[in-house]
Write a structure and sequence with these properties.
Blueprint (H helix, E strand, L loop, with lengths): L2 E6 L2 H13 L2 H25 L7 H25 L7 E6 L3 E8 L2 E8 L5 E4 L3 E7 L2 E6 L8 H12 L4 E3 L2
Parallel strand pairs: 5-8
Antiparallel strand pairs: 1-2, 2-3, 3-4, 5-6, 6-7
Amino acid sequence: MEIKACSVYDKKTITAYSKQSIKRLKPLYIIVYVLFGFMFIVNLYDIIALNASISVLLVPVLITTIFLLYIYVFLPKLNYKLQKTKTDAVNQFTFYDTKLLAVSTSQGITGTSEVEYSTLNKVLETKDYIYLYIAKEKAMIVDKSTITNGSVEDIRSAITSQIGIEKYKIKV
C-alpha cells in the first residue's frame, strides 16, 4: 500500500484545527455556560423582584458574547499567526501498511518525518481532515480531498490495525 495525500497549513486548515481542538474543552464550556446562566437568572430576579434596571442583564450577555467571539473568532486567528514556521507549509504524506512518511516544506526549509502508526497518540477524522496526533497537542493534518492511490478507508484500516479502533475517532 502506498497512498498519497497532502495538506497546506493555510489559514483554513489551521482554523479548522483550532476549532477542532476547542471542541475537546466541552466540560469547560458547560461550566462557563452554567455560570453565565446563573448570573443571568440572578440578574433577571433582580429586575423582577427588586425593580433593578434592565441594564444589569447587559453584563452577563456582554461577557458571554466576548467569550464566544474570543473562542470561535479571535483564538483561531491568533493560533494561525503564532504558527509562523508552519504557516503555508506544504506537507506531502505517503501512507504505508505500518507507517507514514511526511515531507514538509515551508519558507525554503524541508523536513522529513517517518512515523510508525503504533506511536500515534490518537487519530481524529472529521468531514474534511484526518488529524494524526503525534503528541497530546500536536497533530499532522491530512486533507482528505487530496488522497490518491487509495481511500480514507484504506488509511483508516492500516492505522487501526496498529493502534486499535479505540484510538481512532470519527466525528463527521
